[in-house]
Design brief:
homodimer; 219 residues; arginine biosynthesis bifunctional protein fold; six-stranded mixed β-sheet
Chain lengths: 219, 219
């Protein structure tokens, strides 16, 4: 670290389970890829984030390996997602969690990219802060993402309500949807319908408080 | 356009000069690359920005071509930079212009990437808004940029004052520098000192007003 200001994420996971080391490392990497690495507060990645896991074997169970490790992997995924969501909801000045679900992308990597870009968009984050069901901003992110897409196949949902079908905007009760967006978690779902790539990303809204925290803290 | 919300930039340049068409197109592309394309307000690229130039030849001058077009090119560059800076300074809720100068990068493309990332960083933008000479946030962007660098060679300047030399922070009068940052334009200069890549990017500070404009405008 070169300056005590930097946001730094240090995550320590521990378990009493007896787990084969190679499997544990791979399971952690997979879990982190779909949780911490899909998290964005303000796009300013810290240069020194870290997630570690330690297993001391005290539970004296049969060794968990790739062969019998399905439940362990699922539990680890769940813990990592819970922690990632908690970080997003706890973002500086955040008032709600944004969950972006993307499916039907051409590839997993394209789905991940699109989900993260939407969750990181300042305009999308500000719209969520203002309970504004502004699907135009979501679609604009798709447009600049570089992801493969067919406009005529695009479905978009806000807080579970479909606002675009096959690329055409649907009529919806804006006031009602805006009221439903005043929840702790706001969900944005984009179905590209051209492939099998799926990803979920998490972020938080952009508030005046975020600016205040990050501009005035020294004064 | 799919929604009237989208920020959209339409720039029309006109001149009476008689200019050879191919040269004019190339000169515009080069000028736009170093001006409009180095501009960032909030990272949310519109999907339908445009810059066009028209030359009607009324000045009845000798045809301007690549061979004699140096002055025309410089004038065009100047106009484009002036317009780009005006857009940044006029950003939603912006109270000042940020000019990021990067030199000594390994390549021009790396210099461009670093300059744009610094100008786009929410944390850097918020720090500028709070007149906070927070070089740590600038250096953190370098760290995540993926650009080639040698920490021991890094020089950083804020508003003309050197705050880091050869990778080591320098002592400076924080209150005084903070006061000097209350100018219309805040300059950030990063010298990587490992190559010849140079770039300038422009952005604006991130204010509470930006959030208000982009979250509350529908209510």
């Amino acid at each position: 670290m070169i300056h005590p200001d930097l946001a730094t994420l240090l995550s320590f996971l521990t378990t009493d389970a007896k787990v084969e080391a190679g499997f544990l490392a791979r399971a952690l990497k997979a879990a982190v890829d779909d949780s911490f690495n899909m998290l964005t507060i303000d796009g300013d990645t810290s240069t020194n984030d870290m997630v570690s896991i330690m297993a001391n074997g005290r539970a004296d169970n049969d060794m968990i390996t790739a062969r019998n490790g399905r439940m362990f992997r699922e539990a680890l995924n769940r813990v990592c997602r819970y922690l990632a969501c908690s970080i997003a909801a706890d973002g500086e000045g955040a008032t709600r969690l944004i969950e972006v679900y993307v499916d039907g992308a051409k590839s997993r990597s394209q789905a991940r990219k699109v989900a993260r870009l939407i969750a990181a968009s300042a305009l999308v984050k500000a719209a969520v802060h203002g309970n504004d069901p502004n699907w135009g901003r979501v679609v604009a992110v798709l447009g600049r993402s570089g992801a493969d897409m067919d406009e005529g196949k695009l479905d978009v949902y806000l807080q579970g309500e479909q606002v675009m079908r096959s690329g055409s905007p649907l009529a919806f009760d804006k006031d009602k949807l805006s009221r439903r967006m005043k929840a702790d978690t706001v969900s944005i779902k984009v179905c590209l319908n051209i492939g099998t790539g799926i990803a979920i990303a998490w972020g938080c809204d952009l508030s005046q408080e975020y600016v205040t925290i990050n501009s005035d803290y020294t004064t």
